[in-house]
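User: Sequence recovery, please. Input:
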């Protein structure tokens, strides 16, 4: 077992956990835009920053070790988390930030008091609606890579990649053409994990995206699919 303190609270968790696990064990939570419990951590968005023995670290990729003192409420690190979420949000067009937007990013904005209706850049990167079951709005992509990891590590399909540089990095089919001509098997894993609504399923509920769900292990009919329907 690992024993540490989070915001003054003693926490005990199984060996191998992260600081994010430790924070959640206290009943608190952090914004985790590039993290999904079903995926290997990437540590790329920096929205989960905490202080651990005075160092600022990403909670999702930092191992919990016995004796650590973790602070999440420290004003400095709380402001860093808010800035990280705000920076990501400010680059996106208004729909994802609208008060009614249903996404992890919009939830994080509301929780941190970041205006969800700020003016933002004009849409420029376009949509890929070539596939019957998966649509991509490139302007809403924050390049968190969750869809890519879900497609490769969980589903084993390897249909997606990140392409472009810097702020222009977006998800794309690995084959380079439209989604409909990619290796996508329509499993829906990318739709399920997308934190912004960039990848959606057309039809009823279009434009909605799933919230992050706790990683419960369930029995499934097919036994190999990454979607996790019970
Ligand atoms: Fe930890 Fe993105 S959730 S760095």
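Assistant: Recovered sequence (230 residues):
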């Amino acid at each position: 077992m690992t024993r540490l303190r989070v915001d003054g609270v003693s926490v005990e968790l199984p060996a191998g956990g992260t600081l994010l696990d430790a924070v959640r064990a206290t009943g608190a939570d952090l914004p985790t835009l590039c993290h999904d419990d079903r995926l290997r951590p990437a540590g790329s968005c920096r929205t989960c920053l905490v202080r651990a023995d005075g160092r600022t670290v990403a909670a999702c990729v930092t191992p919990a070790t016995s004796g650590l003192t973790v602070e999440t409420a420290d004003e400095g690190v709380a402001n860093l988390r808010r800035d990280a979420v705000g920076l990501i949000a400010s680059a996106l067009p208004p729909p994802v930030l609208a008060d009614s937007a249903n996404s992890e990013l919009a939830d994080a904005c509301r929780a941190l008091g970041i205006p969800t209706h700020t003016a933002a850049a004009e849409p420029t990167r376009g949509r890929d609606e070539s596939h019957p079951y998966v649509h991509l709005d490139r302007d809403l992509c924050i390049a968190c890579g969750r869809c890519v990891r879900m497609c490769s590590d969980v589903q084993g399909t390897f249909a997606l990649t990140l392409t472009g540089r810097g702020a222009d990095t977006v998800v794309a089919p690995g084959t380079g053409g439209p989604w409909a001509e990619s290796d996508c098997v329509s499993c829906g894993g990318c739709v399920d994990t997308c934190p912004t609504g960039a990848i959606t399923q057309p039809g009823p509920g279009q434009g909605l995206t799933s919230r992050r769900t706790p990683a419960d292990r369930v029995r499934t009919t097919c036994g190999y699919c990454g979607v996790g329907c019970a």
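The pocket of FE2/S2 (inorganic) cluster is lined by residues 32-35, 43-48, 58, 60 (CB under 6 Å).
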